[in-house]
TrEMBL record:
Belongs to the cytochrome P450 family. Its cofactor is heme. The lineage of its organism: Eukaryota, Metazoa, Chordata, Craniata, Vertebrata. This is Cytochrome P450 2K4-like. Pfam families: p450. It comes from Xiphophorus maculatus. Keywords: Endoplasmic reticulum, Heme, Iron, Membrane, Metal-binding, Microsome, Monooxygenase, Oxidoreductase, Signal. InterPro entries: Cyt_P450 (IPR001128), Cyt_P450_CS (IPR017972), Cyt_P450_E_grp-I (IPR002401), Cyt_P450_sf (IPR036396), Cytochrome_P450_fam2 (IPR050182). It comes from the Eukaryota.
């Protein structure tokens, strides 16, 4: 082969590959360690499956941005193939992905992603979330459920055109199945299934995921049916209406091979919930936990909010006048690193990177954690330090290595929406509440070890939200 040598890596065992070396609960940890030994492009074997890992800011950026075509396809692992049958956005490629991504992006824009409509919807949800926090009256509570409900409802109002009440049983089921699936899909059992799909297809965790998914799809179908019955082609109440109208148009004009099919609609909707709920809520939970752990930083955020916004509602427009708070939010996302291995990619053709040859169809992991903790990019990568995003005069500065949403063709589709949500939820909550550890727990006791899962939220914990008014 004249194209170069293969990326280096630890020697694999027959069949097992490097499985025995990998921490299957938190594979990103082992992968970060391996990158210290083997460099920024290396190979590991998940059982018989060869995976190329990209580590560090420069390499990840170079591959995903400069070689966007070569590295822009999605690897569809056995569990995700089971779940989505290559439909929707997250786990599809080719024309299906292109059409669905384009549709979702343009519809989200129409519904105000980065604009006023989304802001209104989020602010409405902030009001409901604040009420829930108030209802605990300063007593300790687990922040998971309320934050997941709030972020899920933002997606609901964009997709269905309306939000749910938090005690609606259908909504509760929807949210709990999404969070359960994300959690289980990162478990060691599912890693094993992805490695040996024929051998361990029977495992319980896979059955739970499949059942959850089946129920969710049925419910999204029922909700879609209700929207169909009341559809007015002149008014799009949400993304589903827009899809149904486009579907009808394609049918009326006999478009062949249309991607506007019911299957694609259901999977696209479920992808938006799946990708948009837990990620955003986990970021918010990291934020509240870090504020409770570092009260001096919380003081400074609250001082800035009081000075700049006072007690009126916070708006997206305020962000530029809140440099310290903005820096804190960026630092929460950096340290939280909630998508440590992004979502695996694969190469669409043979490619040579840094002199290493990577064959078409190879699974590629962009190790986002290694970018967000890159020692040559960040002054103190392992500490919570908002100064990473501030200049000497206290002005907010952008940092190139801030890639929590990944980069290139597959960059998070919900980035603007997510950033707006995190900003508005975080500031609205800090305006009203002081976050402290439960009685008997010190700030030092608050544990920053992430939970196991496909995403990396904080471990289960309780906080007290003390009203500031
Ligand atoms: C703080 C919150 C969020 C973070 C950190 C995050 C991060 C990510 C990351 C790392 C990826 C994978 C990129 C890659 O493959 O290289 C991704 C993909 C995706 N995200 Fe997000 N995300 C967040 C919120 C959202 C929201 C709110 C939505 C929904 C509107 C969303 C929708 C998606 C979709 C549909 C994809 C798949 C894109 C594709 O395959 O083309 N995400 N996100």
């Amino acid at each position: 082969r004249e194209t170069g040598k293969e990326p280096p890596g630890p020697k694999p065992l027959p069949l097992l590959g490097n499985l025995l070396q990998l921490d299957l609960q938190r594979p990103y940890k082992t992968l970060c360690e391996l990158s210290k030994k083997y460099g920024s492009v290396f190979t590991v074997y998940f059982g018989p499956k060869k995976v190329v890992v990209l580590a560090g800011y420069r390499t990840v950026r170079e591959a995903l941005v400069n070689y966007a075509d070569e590295f822009g396809e999605r690897e569809i692992t056995p569990i995700f193939a089971d779940l989505t049958k290559h439909r929707g956005i997250l786990f599809s490629n080719g024309e299906t992905w292109k059409e669905m991504r384009r549709f979702a992006l343009s519809t989200l824009k129409d519904f105000g992603m980065g604009k006023r409509v989304a802001e209104e919807k989020i602010l409405e949800e902030c009001g409901h979330l604040i009420q829930v926090f108030e209802s605990y009256k300063g007593k300790p509570f687990n922040t998971s459920c309320p934050t997941n409900n709030a972020t899920s409802n933002v997606i609901s109002s964009i997709v269905f055109g309306s939000r749910f009440e938090y005690d609606d049983p259908q909504f509760r089921g929807l949210v709990s199945r999404i969070t359960e699936n994300i959690k289980i899909s990162g478990s060691a059992g599912i890693q094993l299934y992805n490695t040996f799909p024929r051998l361990v297809g029977w495992i319980k965790s896979r059955q739970v995921i499949l059942k959850n998914c089946e129920t969710t799809m049925r419910e999204i179908k029922d909700l879609t049916q209700k929207l169909k019955e009341t559809l007015n082609p002149q008014i799009c109440r949400g993304l589903i209406d827009c899809f149904l109208i486009q579907k009808q148009k394609d049918e009326d004009s006999c478009v062949k091979d249309t991607h506007f099919t019911e299957e694609n609609l259901l999977y696209t909707v479920s992808n938006l919930f799946g990708a948009g709920t837990d990620t955003t809520a986990a970021t918010l939970r990291w934020g509240l936990l870090l504020m409770a752990k570092y009260p001096q930083i919380q003081d400074q955020v609250q001082e800035e909010l009081t000075r700049v916004v006072g007690s009126r509602e916070v708006h997206v427009e305020d962000r530029k006048n809140l440099p310290y708070t903005d820096a804190v939010i960026h630092e929460i996302q950096r340290l939280g690193s909630i998508a440590p291995i992004a979502v695996p990619h694969k190469t669409s053709r043979d490619v040579t990177l840094h002199g290493y040859f990577i064959k078409k169809g190879t699974t590629v992991i962009p190790l986002l954690t290694s970018v967000l903790y890159d020692e040559s990019e960040w002054e103190s990568p392992h500490t919570f330090n908002p100064s990473h995003f501030l200049d000497k005069e206290g002005r907010f500065i952008k940092r190139d290595a801030f890639l929590p949403f990944s980069a290139g063709r597959r960059v998070c589709l919900g980035e603007s929406l997510a950033r707006m949500e995190v900003f508005l939820f975080f500031t609205s909550l800090l305006q009203r509440f002081r976050f402290i550890p439960p009685p008997g727990v010190s700030e030092d006791d608050l544990d920053l070890t992430p939970a196991v899962g496909f995403t990396s939220p904080p471990s289960p914990h309780e906080l007290c939200a003390i009203s500031r008014q």
